[in-house]
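Re: the multi-chain job from yesterday

Posting the exact lines I submitted so nobody has to dig through the queue logs.
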Amino acid sequence: MGEDLAARLRLCVRRTPAATGVAAALSVELRVPADLRCVEEAVELMVRHCFAGLDPTQRTRFRLRVLLSEALTNGILFGAGGDPARNVKVTAELTENSIRLQVTDDGPGFDPAEVPDPTSPPAVRRPIGRGLFLIRSLADRVEFNAQGNTIWMTLPRS
Amino acid sequence: MGFSKTTNGAGVAIVRIDGQLIVGNRQELKTLVQEGLDRGERRFLIDCGQTGYIDSSGLGALVSLSKKVRDLGGELRIAGLNEDLRALFELTKLDTLFHISATAEEALAGF
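And the result, structure tokens for all chains:
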């Protein structure tokens, strides 16, 4: 990744009161230029901050990496049209036991119900169309806003 | 991190993925295999023994490369998947599309 792009990955980490008010929660926010070359670095930055001071399982790390990579790729390509002047925003709300990821782009959104099953016999031979399926398979919970340009994905933090 | 390619004594091209195979680097892998095809290589082993994670774009790259190799009468095999990667292939049913071996040695034994 070029230095100009790396410099444009803007990370913001802050402590905020948890919704329940019981424990402090950490919020990590990253603005990623809509350029696929930024995905790997953005994923590693988020992984580092989401697991800071923790020793999660290999499987949890794997899940976070794939979920972020998929949601960022979708946001960059289909939301922001691969235009590096636009951003995709990633936010992770961290509690002691869970990570709730939010990925938002400034595109028109899509209807997740219309995405076909990539495991059907003809689709399994196609090189594309597995992103949302992987997200649904790897996250404990997946939600979208009505417009379809924000996705929330929940997974454990341990 | 990245890709390295060697050829064994039997003429099988072994491509090792160190790190990840994702949307940002899949083209490198495609180019590496295409260069082998252009030189007449037809048997490819993708060794994932040092691979951390693969996203859907990486899986897609393997699917399209496998087809390209098969169309030329060759075969692309995969080996060394860890537990998480193996689960990814099973979830997506790509385990039905590829010849997958536990280790590179095992894959090469019958290749």
